[in-house]
Each structure stands twice: as structure tokens, then as C-alpha cells.
From TrEMBL, chain A:
Protein name: Uncharacterized protein
Species of provenance: Aureimonas ureilytica
UniProtKB/TrEMBL annotation, chain B:
A Pfam family recorded for this sequence: AAA_23
Protein name (database record): Chromosome segregation protein SMC
Domain Rad50/SbcC-type AAA: 10-63
A biological process term (GO) from this entry: double-strand break repair
Superkingdom assignment: Bacteria
Alphabetized PANTHER family for the sequence: DNA REPLICATION AND REPAIR PROTEIN RECF
């Protein structure tokens, strides 16, 4: 039997790499990817990680729905 | 890579079946096999491992303690431990390279902290190292694919990835729900209904516009008509202009305010019941008060004159008593001694009347004075009110009321001089106020008749509120739309993440699948259908499932094993998977504890499993407990003696714990115990049993097939009887042993246990002295000494089926067995 004793890649390392590749992917919503990376793609997520991520996504939707007015400064 | 961890020792004290301390030493032989009947304490050894490695200091099978069930952690301790003042403890020694670390864990009390060494070991156990036979089926048959996935993902150290997938699923659900949530819009509808007094209950652009035009703008000006509900609509712009103008002019509210201020000064009213006209207000109140005060002052002056002689008040009072009616009056004046008859009054009666008159005049004056004081207070109060009321109206009057304003200012100045100067006449000012009130009432009436309660300011405020609600609703819609897009993006990103995790998990599963099938095939034979470990299809939204599948037949591919495999095959699948996983992922501590794992297997499979352990797990530390003697013998036959320690529990002493006997007890071991002053009774018993079993095997005795409940456990009397029968058939008769009345085999056969036979009783040897033990051991050795090859003196025999008598097993001898003379070594 082939016994490969190479240590497994740690979940943390795998998730970090996964987060980076997700953000670098073409056409991906990077704001959303950042939220997922911050809250979900963690080896030891916060107990309320899902709630935090949801709040962040809802806030993002609100900001996109009502973007801050750009003030035009003359001169 | 660091040296792997192995157990160096395992000690149980007051734990489960073990009351007195028992230590298993793995320093010389790494692996251990324990044979014991059920209920004699073998599983307690595996329990000790589970306990010391457990996070919460208990055993899974103990469950939770409830009222009166004595379950839970309390069952960890031996039931007599407390009485015997023994602290229930499990201790381990662990070696890595040359470094030995020890640790122990209390098995009683609320706090049973895990020792550091156990925590270290746990970090090496990606896969739980303990496999219990009764739980094997669970994985294959009972567990759902989700549970299986969780287990395997944990074995593969992918627990966090399982959490990521679970969290992603939960997040997707919550975002989807949020995207479909209409609370914000419903809130707008509730507000809309309130603002429109239920005329429009839910948002409908046309209905809202119609409401604005019909019920807000039309009453003001039917020509004012919004084409769209927007601040840019020309009608809204016009409304804004008119509202501003209204705000700058005096509106209805302003007129009402002026009227209120004027009415505060003077107002003529009619009593509806009596039809009487009355006036009220600060001016008439002040006028009345001033008039009342003048009258009071006049009266007070008048009474004051009458009571000018108030200085004689004391005299009148004294005289009143002297000349009171019924009292003897003095004959002369008490003051001037003038005879009463000579005074102006001329008699006591006349004096009494005179005194009464003066006292009455004093009382009238006092009343008039009080009335004047009250009138003065009231006049001052009325004056204060009038002074404070006048600026209100003066301030509200615009240029169009200049005459009134001027008159009021003059009046105000005159009033301010009171009471030093007389109160001004109010008739003129009252007339002007009356005229103002009449004009105001007409204007208000005209406006109300024209627009009711509607004003442009109010109308604009209502339209603005509708615009706010419209804006809020649009924001809600846009947010929902954004959330919807984010929800779709989240689904896409979650799919990407899941696919990556899937790839990783599947790669690891593939790594596990091959060794698992190697083991499975070794147990079940080369023809066994391979087992596939498969995740759901990629397009399946729930990737957190693990399917165990087989291609059972051409028309039954990819089916669940539970429905097609036999009991032992299912056991084999689970056993192979667990053992392959341990082998693959527990490299840091290649330890396997197998508790009664062969109950489902027939003899051939048990032999195969023994062979499997020997050939594929030689580099692991294995602890096996079994109640199956045949499996135990297979293990002994196939496993290396230099690394394996075989022992058996020969009984469970409730006041001590399991009694062990190592499977191969040598004469030297027995001698060594006597030298140490210890009883060797159990060792003797074990040695005798081992010899009996060995010679029965060599001679090929016939044993009756046992009833099912004792399938593979030979009793000593059975073996003795079988050996006796074979010897009798072969006409072989052992010599009598000196000191033994009955032949050993015969005595066993008839159940008359005497002397020699006592070695073979089914319970541990009793109370004999070491001297007795030595005598009996000599008797046994004498008997045993007859079973040697008379030609070559070897002690291994065999009996081919065609022969009645055994022959020497040595290929160069093969002499037919005959009993040697007693005493031949």
C-alpha cells in the first residue's frame, strides 16, 4: 500500500488561497468576494459569521441602491 | 517528519471493570491482543483509551446522566472505588522517538481535565483511532450521506471546509430571503394608507397621483394638476410658489390668530340659553374692575367718616359692659363722676343706645374697607392682564389696520399710567376692536367657504410626504434589486468555492479509495466489487454528502451497499474505510484500537482479518480485544510474537477487577513468582490450559460441535474428555502420577475433580499455599512429561486424518507417539 505521509495542506492555507483566487477571477463581484473572504472563508470563523456576512451584503446592496451624491466643486 | 507517537503504557485504576491498578506495558511489545468472554472487562481497556482522549471526559456510550439512571460520567468509576478509597484514574505513557511523556486523568468528579499528552495525541488523530465492532455498521447503513461527509471531512482534516460550505448555504438562503423580503415596501404602504386616510392602501402610482390631484390640489385650485408625482412637475412648482406666497401673506391661520388676540381684549357674545348679550375680554374686565374699585373707595370713605370716632372704640366697648341690659348701671359716670341723670343722655338706657350706635358704625366701615381692598386687588389683576394682552394684538396688526394700531398704542400708554392717572375711556377702542372682529369674521368665513381646511402650505406638505414615500419606495425597490443581483452573484461564487472544495475533497477521497478497496478486497476476496467514494454531481447544490457506491451488477450500477451487500461485507466496507483512513491520515500516531470487530465474520474472514493486520498494519500499534477465541488464535498464529503481546482475561473478580493470564506461561514465570513470594495459581492454571489446548491440537482430538451460545470457547473439561477419548481409542494410557489417586483425564471426564483436577477448575485457583502450588505443579509436570517423543524427545506432534495415533511432528523423526516413562523430561 502506498503510504503518502506528506502533511495535508491546512484548511486555513487552502481557504486563504481560495479567497485570493476568487477575488482575482474575471468578472467576479469583488466587493462580494471580499465579504466572503472576510467572514466565511475562514478556518475558524466567528460564531455569528453568517449574520455578519449577511449584514455586510445587505449594507452593500443599500449603498449600491443609494450611492452617495457626488458634489461638484466648481473651480 | 517528527517521530510518530505510540503508547508506552496504559494504566487503569478504579476505572470501569478495573478496581485495583492494572498497567499494560507496551515498551517491549507494542501491540496487544486481549481475549476474554463477554462482560469480563476487555472493552474497559478500549474505554480507557476513549476516555483519556475524549474532550469532555466521558464515553460516548455512557450517554447523559438523568435522574436515577446512574448513567453519564458517574459510570466511569468502578462501583466499589469510592468504598475502597481508590481514585478512579486512567494513565498513559506515550513515546515519540526516545522521548516519553506521561499523563493521567481522573475518572470521577466534576472536573476531569484532559492531560496535555492526550491533547497532543488528539492533534495526530485526524481519524478516530478506536473502532468498535458494534458501531461499524452505523457508518455504512445508518449514517446519512451528510453525516458520512462530515465524518470523512473531519478525518481528512476538512472540518473547517464543511463549516464553510454550511455557512455558505445558510448565507445564500438568508440573502435570497432578504432579496425577496417586502417589508420595506409594506412599511411604505402602511404609511401611504395613513397619509391618505386609507384612500390609497398600497402603492399604485396612478392611484397616488389621482389622490394628490383630486383630494389635495383640486379643493384649492382645480386648474392645479400634477402630470407626474415629481418635484419637477409644473404643477408642483406652481404649488410651491403659492405656498410660499401664502406663507408670506396672512393666511387663515394668521387671521384666526389676530381674531383670537382681539377677542382676548374685547368680545361681545350672546348667551344661547338666555338670549342675553354679554361682553368679555381684558378691556371690559378692566373697566368693570375700575368702576367697582371707584364705588368701593367711595363707600369706604363714607363709612370712614361715620366711624371717625374709632379712637373711642375701646371706650365704647368698656361702656357697653357697664351699661349692658340686666346689669345694675352705675349712678355716676365712671370717667368724670357726673351723675348719670345730669349727663346729656340722662339715663342708663339712653347711654346703652348711644354705645350700640357707635359700635355699629365701626362694623360698616370695616366691611366697606374690605370691599375696597378686594376691588383694588381685582383691578390690579385686570390691569396686569390688559397690559399683557395689548401688545399681542398690536404686534399682529399689519399696515392695513394702522388706525386701530395707533389707537391701541395710545390706549396702551394711558392704561400704563393707571392707577396714578385715571383709567382711559375704552368706548373708542372697544368700537374699533368690534369693527376689527367683524371684519375678521367675515374674512375667515369667506376663506373657509372657499377652501375649507385646505391651504397651499398644507397641500405642499402632503405632496412632499407623498414624494418622500415615493422616494423611500424606489429606494426599497432598488435595494431589493441590488440584493437580488448580489444573491445571484453569491450563488455563482458559492458554486466556485464549493467546486474548489469538492475538487480537494474528491482528490483526498480518491487517495483514500484505493487503500480502502485494497483492504476490502483482502477481507472479502479479489472478486469483491470495488467501493466508490463519491460526492454528489457537480450541479447538485448540496455538495456536503458522501455516497458509498458499488457497481453490484451490470444492471445495478452505482447502488448503495446497504441494499446489496451482506452483513459481513457491510462491516468490511466500514472497517476497510476506517482502517485505510487511519493508516492514511494518522501518520503522526499510527495507533488503532479494535474492539470486538469480527462478530459478523465467518472463520475464513476472521483469519483474513488477522492476516490483514499482520501484512498491512505492521508499522502500526494495534490494540485488539475480542471475545472470539478462534480469531484470537488466528492472531497468535499470524502476528509477530516479538511485537505482539497476547493475554486473556480468565475471570472478573468484582472486588479486584479482571484477572489476566498471559497466553504463554513458561515454567520460569511460575518459578519467578514463587521466588518473589507470590502465588502462581493463575499462571499454573493458564499454563495447564495452554498445554491442554496445544496437545489437543497436535493430537487432532475430536470435539463435539458446541451449541451456538458457546460457539468457539472450549472448556477445559471438554478438551480433557476429547483427549481422553482419543487416547483410549488409540489404546494409549498414561502412567499414574505419584500422589494422584485418579487418572487426571479420567477424573476430568467423570467430573470427579480431585487433587490434580483442581488445576482445571473453571474458576481461579483458591486459597492454597505456595507449598501446595509447588506440589501440584510438580504433579502436572510429571504428567506432562509423558507427552514427549520417545525417539527424539520433541514435544510437537501431529495426527494425519488416516492415522489413529499421533506422530512426532519433526519431519526427520515422525515416530508414532507412545507415552514416555514417567519422569522423562
Amino acid at each position: 500500500m502506498d503510504h503518502e505521509k506528506k502533511p495535508l495542506e491546512t484548511p486555513d492555507a487552502f481557504l486563504n488561497a481560495l479567497g485570493d483566487s476568487l477575488k482575482a477571477k474575471d468578472g467576479v463581484d469583488t466587493d462580494l468576494a471580499s465579504i466572503l473572504t472576510t467572514h466565511i472563508l475562514k478556518a475558524a470563523p466567528a460564531p455569528n459569521a453568517v449574520a455578519q456576512a449577511k449584514d455586510a451584503i445587505v449594507k452593500l446592496a443599500s449603498e449600491r441602491a443609494d450611492p452617495p451624491k457626488v458634489e461638484v466643486v466648481n473651480g | 517528519m517528527a517521530d510518530p507517537y505510540f503508547f508506552q503504557s496504559l494504566g487503569l485504576t478504579g476505572f470501569r471493570a478495573y478496581l485495583q491498578p492494572k498497567t499494560f506495558d507496551f515498551s517491549k511489545k507494542r501491540c496487544l491482543a486481549i481475549f476474554a468472554p463477554n462482560g469480563s472487562g476487555k472493552s474497559s481497556v478500549i474505554d480507557a483509551l476513549e476516555f483519556i482522549l475524549s474532550k469532555d471526559g466521558t464515553l460516548e456510550r455512557l450517554g447523559q446522566r438523568a435522574i436515577n439512571n446512574q448513567a453519564g460520567p458517574i459510570a466511569l468509576a468502578h462501583n466499589l472505588a469510592e468504598e475502597a478509597k481508590i481514585v478512579p484514574t486512567v494513565a498513559i505513557g506515550v513515546i515519540s522517538g526516545k522521548e516519553i511523556t506521561n499523563g493521567s486523568r481522573a475518572a470521577a468528579g466534576a472536573k476531569r481535565p484532559i492531560p496535555a499528552v492526550a491533547t497532543t495525541l488528539n492533534t495526530c488523530f485526524a481519524v478516530p483511532p478506536i473502532i468498535r465492532g458494534h458501531a461499524l455498521r452505523t457508518f455504512v447503513e445508518i449514517h446519512t450521506p451528510e453525516q458520512r461527509y462530515t465524518d470523512v471531512a473531519n478525518w481528512l482534516q476538512l472540518g473547517p471546509l464543511v463549516d464553510v460550505q454550511k455557512n455558505l448555504r445558510s448565507l445564500r438562503t438568508q440573502i435570497k430571503t432578504a432579496a425577496e423580503d417586502e417589508t420595506a415596501l409594506q412599511r411604505v404602504d402602511i404609511q401611504l394608507a395613513k397619509e391618505t386616510t386609507q384612500a390609497v392602501k398600497s402603492w399604485d402610482a396612478a392611484a397616488v397621483l389621482s389622490y394628490a390631484n383630486t383630494l389635495i390640489l383640486a379643493p384649492l385650485d382645480p386648474a392645479l394638476f400634477l402630470v407626474a408625482l415629481t418635484a419637477l412637475d409644473p404643477a408642483y412648482v406652481e404649488l410651491e410658489t403659492r405656498a410660499k406666497a401664502e406663507d408670506n401673506k396672512i393666511g387663515l391661520a394668521g387671521l384666526r390668530q389676530i381674531r383670537s388676540a382681539a377677542a382676548g381684549l374685547w368680545l361681545e357674545t350672546t348667551d344661547a340659553d338666555r338670549g342675553e348679550i354679554a361682553v368679555r375680554g381684558a378691556v371690559p374686565t378692566f373697566d368693570t374692575a375700575v368702576t367697582t374699585l371707584a364705588t368701593a373707595e367711595s363707600k369706604e370713605a363714607e363709612e370712614r367718616d361715620k366711624a371717625a370716632g374709632t379712637v373711642f372704640q375701646a371706650l365704647w366697648k368698656a361702656a357697653e359692659q357697664l351699661f349692658a341690659e340686666g346689669v345694675p348701671a352705675p349712678d355716676v359716670c365712671p370717667v368724670c363722676i357726673t351723675p348719670i341723670t345730669d349727663t346729656a343722655a340722662g339715663s342708663p338706657e339712653a347711654i346703652r343706645d348711644h354705645v350700640a350706635k357707635h359700635l355699629e358704625e365701626l362694623a360698616d366701615y370695616a366691611a366697606a374697607k374690605k370691599t375696597r381692598d378686594d376691588a383694588k386687588t381685582a383691578a390690579i389683576k385686570a390691569h396686569t392682564q390688559l397690559v399683557s394682552s395689548l401688545p399681542g394684538l398690536i404686534g399682529l396688526l399689519g399696515d392695513g389696520e394702522a388706525a386701530l394700531k395707533s389707537a391701541l398704542v395710545a390706549y396702551q400708554a394711558s392704561i400704563a399710567g393707571w392707577p396714578k392717572s385715571p383709567a382711559p375711556a375704552s368706548a373708542g377702542i372697544v368700537a374699533l376692536i368690534g369693527k376689527l372682529l367683524a371684519a375678521l369674521d367675515k374674512s375667515i368665513s369667506d376663506i373657509e367657504a372657499k377652501q375649507g381646511e385646505h391651504t397651499y402650505l398644507k397641500a405642499k406638505s402632503k405632496i412632499d410626504r407623498l414624494l418622500e414615500l415615493q422616494s423611500e419606495r424606489k429606494l426599497g425597490l432598488r435595494t431589493t434589486e441590488e440584493l437580488g443581483m448580489l444573491s445571484e452573484a453569491l450563488t455563482a461564487q458559492a458554486a466556485t468555492i464549493s467546486a474548489e472544495i469538492r475538487k480537494k475533497v474528491q482528490a483526498l477521497l480518491d487517495k483514500l479509495q484505493t487503500p480502502m478497496n485494497d483492504i476490502y478486497k483482502m477481507i472479502q476476496g479479489a472478486g469483491a466489487k470495488p467501493i466508490r467514494l463519491e460526492l454528489p454531481r457537480e450541479d447538485d447544490s448540496n455538495q456536503q454528502r458522501l455516497n458509498l457506491l458499488i457497481d453490484f451488477a451490470a444492471n445495478r450500477t452505482g447502488v448503495q451497499p446497504g441494499g446489496y451487500l451482506s452483513d459481513s461485507q457491510i462491516h468490511s466496507v466500514a472497517l476497510a474505510l476506517r482502517m485505510a483512513a487511519i493508516k492514511q491520515f494518522n501518520a503522526g500516531a499510527p495507533i488503532i484500537a479494535l474492539d470486538d470487530i469480527v462478530t459478523s465474520y465467518d472463520a475464513d474472514h476472521r483469519r483474513t482479518i488477522a492476516g490483514l493486520i499482520a501484512t498491512m498494519f505492521g508499522d502500526c500499534q494495534i490494540l485488539i480485544t475480542t471475545h472470539d477465541e478462534r480469531f484470537f488464535n488466528y492472531l497468535k498464529d499470524q502476528l509477530e510474537a516479538k511485537t505482539w503481546h497476547f493475554t486473556r482475561i480468565i475471570g472478573l473478580d468484582s472486588a479486584y477487577g479482571p484477572r489476566f493470564a498471559d497466553h504463554k506461561v513458561s515454567d520460569e514465570m511460575i518459578e519467578a513468582r514463587w521466588v518473589a513470594g507470590q502465588s502462581a495459581a493463575n499462571e499454573m492454571r493458564q499454563a495447564e490450559e495452554e498445554w491442554l489446548l496445544g496437545i489437543c491440537r497436535d493430537f487432532g482430538v475430536s470435539v463435539r460441535i458446541r451449541p451456538l451460545e458457546k460457539a468457539y470457547s472450549y472448556e477445559r473439561s471438554e478438551l480433557a474428555a476429547a483427549l481422553s477419548g482419543l487416547l483410549k481409542d488409540a489404546k494409549l494410557e498414561p502412567s499414574l502420577v505419584s500422589g494422584v489417586n485418579n487418572r487426571f483425564l479420567t477424573s476430568l471426564g467423570i467430573g470427579a475433580i480431585e487433587n490434580f483436577g483442581s488445576h482445571f477448575q473453571d474458576i481461579p485457583y483458591g486459597e492454597g499455599s505456595i507449598g501446595d502450588e509447588k506440589a501440584r505443579w510438580e504433579e502436572f509436570k510429571t504428567f506432562r512429561s509423558q507427552f514427549v517423543c520417545r525417539k527424539c524427545s520433541r514435544t510437537k506432534f501431529q495426527r494425519p486424518l488416516t492415522m489413529k495415533k499421533p506422530v512426532c511432528a519433526h519431519s526427520g523423526c515422525e515416530a508414532q507417539f507412545e507415552f514416555a516413562a514417567v519422569g522423562v523430561p
